[in-house]
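Page 42, continued from yesterday. The earlier attempt failed because a stray header line got pasted into the input along with the sequence. Redoing it now with the clean sequence only.
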Amino acid sequence: MSERTYLAYDFPLLSAFWTILWVFLWIMWFILLFRVVLDIFRDDDLSGWAKAGWLVFCLVLPFLGVFVYVIARGRNMGRREIAQARAQQEEFDSYIRKTAAGGRGSSVDELTRLSEIRARGDITDEEFRRAKELVLAGQNPGHGQGHGPAGPAGSTTLPTSGR
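This time it went through. C-alpha coordinates are written below.
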Protein backbone atom coordinates (compact mmCIF):
# COMPACT_ATOMS: atom_id res chain seq x y z
CA MET A 1 0.00 0.00 0.00
CA SER A 2 2.59 2.48 -1.10
CA GLU A 3 0.17 4.50 -3.26
CA ARG A 4 -1.22 7.62 -1.77
CA THR A 5 -5.01 7.86 -1.70
CA TYR A 6 -6.51 11.27 -2.34
CA LEU A 7 -9.75 12.22 -0.75
CA ALA A 8 -11.96 15.04 -2.03
CA TYR A 9 -10.41 17.59 0.31
CA ASP A 10 -6.87 16.47 -0.68
CA PHE A 11 -7.43 17.06 -4.43
CA PRO A 12 -5.43 20.14 -5.46
CA LEU A 13 -7.35 23.08 -6.92
CA LEU A 14 -5.31 23.23 -10.13
CA SER A 15 -5.87 19.52 -10.70
CA ALA A 16 -9.61 20.04 -10.22
CA PHE A 17 -9.50 22.83 -12.81
CA TRP A 18 -7.66 20.64 -15.33
CA THR A 19 -10.04 17.76 -14.72
CA ILE A 20 -13.05 19.97 -15.34
CA LEU A 21 -11.42 21.39 -18.48
CA TRP A 22 -10.72 17.93 -19.90
CA VAL A 23 -14.25 16.74 -19.16
CA PHE A 24 -15.64 19.84 -20.86
CA LEU A 25 -13.42 19.32 -23.92
CA TRP A 26 -14.46 15.66 -24.20
CA ILE A 27 -18.14 16.62 -24.04
CA MET A 28 -17.61 19.29 -26.70
CA TRP A 29 -15.75 16.75 -28.84
CA PHE A 30 -18.65 14.28 -28.71
CA ILE A 31 -21.15 17.03 -29.52
CA LEU A 32 -19.08 18.01 -32.56
CA LEU A 33 -18.74 14.38 -33.63
CA PHE A 34 -22.51 13.83 -33.44
CA ARG A 35 -23.21 17.06 -35.32
CA VAL A 36 -20.81 16.06 -38.10
CA VAL A 37 -22.38 12.60 -38.39
CA LEU A 38 -25.88 14.11 -38.51
CA ASP A 39 -24.74 16.63 -41.11
CA ILE A 40 -23.35 13.84 -43.26
CA PHE A 41 -26.79 12.23 -43.35
CA ARG A 42 -28.60 15.58 -43.76
CA ASP A 43 -26.59 16.70 -46.81
CA ASP A 44 -28.57 16.15 -50.02
CA ASP A 45 -25.62 17.19 -52.22
CA LEU A 46 -23.56 14.12 -51.25
CA SER A 47 -24.12 10.83 -52.99
CA GLY A 48 -24.60 7.65 -51.00
CA TRP A 49 -20.98 6.58 -51.55
CA ALA A 50 -19.66 9.98 -50.49
CA LYS A 51 -21.76 9.82 -47.33
CA ALA A 52 -20.44 6.33 -46.61
CA GLY A 53 -16.86 7.50 -47.21
CA TRP A 54 -17.16 10.50 -44.90
CA LEU A 55 -18.86 8.38 -42.26
CA VAL A 56 -16.14 5.71 -42.35
CA PHE A 57 -13.44 8.40 -42.29
CA CYS A 58 -15.04 10.08 -39.25
CA LEU A 59 -15.53 6.82 -37.39
CA VAL A 60 -12.18 5.14 -38.17
CA LEU A 61 -10.04 8.25 -37.65
CA PRO A 62 -12.39 10.40 -35.58
CA PHE A 63 -10.12 13.34 -34.73
CA LEU A 64 -8.67 13.67 -38.23
CA GLY A 65 -12.00 12.86 -39.94
CA VAL A 66 -13.98 15.47 -38.02
CA PHE A 67 -11.19 18.03 -38.40
CA VAL A 68 -11.03 17.54 -42.19
CA TYR A 69 -14.84 17.52 -42.50
CA VAL A 70 -15.22 20.77 -40.59
CA ILE A 71 -12.53 22.43 -42.71
CA ALA A 72 -13.85 21.09 -46.03
CA ARG A 73 -17.60 21.35 -45.47
CA GLY A 74 -18.05 23.45 -42.32
CA ARG A 75 -19.48 26.52 -44.03
CA ASN A 76 -22.22 24.55 -45.75
CA MET A 77 -22.81 22.65 -42.53
CA GLY A 78 -24.11 25.81 -40.90
CA ARG A 79 -26.24 26.68 -43.91
CA ARG A 80 -27.89 23.26 -43.90
CA GLU A 81 -28.65 23.56 -40.21
CA ILE A 82 -30.21 27.00 -40.70
CA ALA A 83 -32.27 25.73 -43.65
CA GLN A 84 -33.55 22.83 -41.59
CA ALA A 85 -34.43 25.12 -38.68
CA ARG A 86 -36.33 27.46 -41.04
CA ALA A 87 -38.21 24.55 -42.61
CA GLN A 88 -39.20 23.26 -39.18
CA GLN A 89 -40.34 26.74 -38.13
CA GLU A 90 -42.42 27.19 -41.29
CA GLU A 91 -44.01 23.78 -40.79
CA PHE A 92 -44.79 24.63 -37.18
CA ASP A 93 -46.22 28.03 -38.15
CA SER A 94 -48.46 26.48 -40.82
CA TYR A 95 -49.68 23.92 -38.29
CA ILE A 96 -50.48 26.69 -35.81
CA ARG A 97 -52.32 28.73 -38.47
CA LYS A 98 -54.32 25.66 -39.52
CA THR A 99 -55.16 24.77 -35.93
CA ALA A 100 -56.05 28.35 -34.98
CA ALA A 101 -58.42 28.53 -37.94
CA GLY A 102 -60.42 25.73 -36.35
CA GLY A 103 -59.68 23.30 -39.13
CA ARG A 104 -61.67 25.35 -41.62
CA GLY A 105 -60.29 25.65 -45.09
CA SER A 106 -60.25 28.73 -47.21
CA SER A 107 -63.34 29.93 -49.05
CA VAL A 108 -62.00 28.30 -52.23
CA ASP A 109 -61.85 24.95 -50.41
CA GLU A 110 -65.37 25.47 -49.09
CA LEU A 111 -66.69 26.32 -52.57
CA THR A 112 -64.98 23.24 -54.00
CA ARG A 113 -66.57 21.07 -51.33
CA LEU A 114 -69.99 22.60 -52.01
CA SER A 115 -69.56 22.00 -55.73
CA GLU A 116 -68.77 18.34 -55.08
CA ILE A 117 -71.87 18.01 -52.86
CA ARG A 118 -74.02 19.56 -55.61
CA ALA A 119 -72.45 17.28 -58.25
CA ARG A 120 -73.40 14.22 -56.16
CA GLY A 121 -76.96 15.52 -56.00
CA ASP A 122 -77.01 15.96 -52.22
CA ILE A 123 -78.13 19.60 -52.50
CA THR A 124 -80.20 21.47 -55.03
CA ASP A 125 -79.00 24.36 -57.16
CA GLU A 126 -80.90 26.79 -54.94
CA GLU A 127 -79.24 25.41 -51.79
CA PHE A 128 -75.88 25.63 -53.54
CA ARG A 129 -76.51 29.26 -54.49
CA ARG A 130 -77.44 30.20 -50.91
CA ALA A 131 -74.44 28.33 -49.48
CA LYS A 132 -72.16 30.03 -51.99
CA GLU A 133 -73.48 33.41 -50.93
CA LEU A 134 -72.77 32.53 -47.29
CA VAL A 135 -69.22 31.44 -48.12
CA LEU A 136 -68.53 34.57 -50.11
CA ALA A 137 -70.01 36.67 -47.28
CA GLY A 138 -67.46 35.12 -44.91
CA GLN A 139 -69.73 32.69 -43.06
CA ASN A 140 -69.23 28.93 -42.99
CA PRO A 141 -72.47 27.25 -44.14
CA GLY A 142 -71.36 23.82 -42.91
CA HIS A 143 -71.12 25.00 -39.30
CA GLY A 144 -74.28 26.72 -37.99
CA GLN A 145 -72.26 29.59 -36.50
CA GLY A 146 -73.81 28.94 -33.09
CA HIS A 147 -77.19 30.43 -34.11
CA GLY A 148 -79.18 27.27 -33.46
CA PRO A 149 -80.45 24.76 -35.98
CA ALA A 150 -81.91 27.37 -38.29
CA GLY A 151 -78.63 29.30 -38.56
CA PRO A 152 -78.49 33.08 -38.88
CA ALA A 153 -81.68 34.92 -39.78
CA GLY A 154 -83.72 31.73 -40.19
CA SER A 155 -81.63 30.20 -43.00
CA THR A 156 -81.12 26.46 -42.91
CA THR A 157 -77.81 24.76 -42.30
CA LEU A 158 -76.77 22.70 -45.30
CA PRO A 159 -75.52 19.12 -45.09
CA THR A 160 -71.73 18.79 -45.15
CA SER A 161 -71.38 15.08 -45.76
CA GLY A 162 -72.78 12.51 -48.15
CA ARG A 163 -75.94 10.48 -47.58
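Notes: DSSP finds five helices and no strands in the chain.
Reminder to self: strip header lines before submitting.
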